[in-house]
Amino acid sequence: MLLTTRYRDRSNVMALSWVTPVSLRPPMVAVSVQRGCLSHDYIERSGQFSLSVPGPSQIRQVRDAGLLSGKDVDSKFAEVGLKAIGGDALAVPLVAECLAYLECAVTEAYEVGEDHTLFVAEVVGAQADDGAFGESWLLPAAGRRPLHHLGGHLYSVLSGVTSAAPEEEEG
């Protein structure tokens, strides 16, 4: 997952693993961001962020977005080879060529432990590649499957779908 932020005329992007849905009505997500990083500062100041779901073709850029600090460069997007595009709902950029996007407005923030803040946000805008997402993630061609971070330098993409739907009872 890539998290993007904007404050005044500066944008930033970071790799993010700690994200979860927390409500359907209204649609809400929570992200855990390390205090002291530039994206954390921008979220606190603007109250907004966006999430972009990358595919496997963006694995190197995702890795680099996780290794490089936005505090050390003029444009982290350019440094890691990502292109920013405008969203529909907020002034926060999205990452071009991703599979899906969520534009989020922060409603609550909680300091968690000694080093992170959990930002709870309402999803105020959403877009998805029709070939990658319907009512749930689909299993399109390998290049259009969502990239999942497993930890360290390991990533995965969906390779199959299994259903746990209850069988209909015969009458």
Task: Describe the protein in words.
The protein is mainly beta. The chain has one domain: Pnp Oxidase, Chain A (Roll). It is 13% helix and 40% strand. It has 3 helices and 11 strands, in the order E-E-E-E-H-E-H-H-E-E-E-E-E-E. It has helices at residues 38-46, 59-67, 76-80, and strands at 2-7, 10-15, 19-23, 28-34, 48-53, 84-85, 94-95, 100-112, 116-128, 147-151, 154-157. The strands form 3 sheets. The chain has a 7-stranded antiparallel beta sheet. Strands 6-7 form a two-stranded antiparallel ribbon. A two-stranded antiparallel sheet has the order 10-11. Strand 8 (100-112) and strand 9 (116-128) form a beta hairpin. The longest helix has 9 residues, at 38-46. The N and C termini lie far apart (46 Å).
In short, what is this structure?
The protein is mostly beta strands and 171 residues long.
Quick tags:
171 residues, mainly beta, Pnp Oxidase, Chain A, 7-stranded antiparallel sheet, two-stranded antiparallel ribbon, 3 helices
